[in-house]
User: What shape does this take?
Amino acid sequence: MDNGYKICRKCESKLLTKTTYELDSTKVGKVRVYNVEYEYCQKCNIDYIPVDVFNKWKELERHLILNALAKRLNNIEDINTQYMSSKEFANLLDISERKLLGKSINMKLLHNAVYSIVLFGHRYYLRESVAKFVTSGNGIFLLT
Ligand SMILES: [Zn+2]
Assistant: This one.
């Protein structure tokens, strides 16, 4: 029987509605999405996040990452001091540039572990991120 409200799967309490979703990002810190709707259980302290709300959060995170990366470019010379070209990064990894920019699963994983930005149609890699990636296998750090 539908009595007009949703109940918690764990404790069967009536769920309440929230309209702001906030979650910490390892890349840009707190990311807050407004004007969304999801249920939560006050008693269990559980959020029931629908996929579309999480996707909005991911999209906003991506936007904030690009903003943070763009902020590291104050002038045209910064492209070479703050970033390296795909050719330079490929040389460093001892692989071809074509392989680096290809769509293999390994390269997708690599691109998730290193910050990069597309400028004038070319991909550039953040030097600080590359340095961390080369030593630890993970070039992701808090940008803000
Ligand atoms: Zn509950």
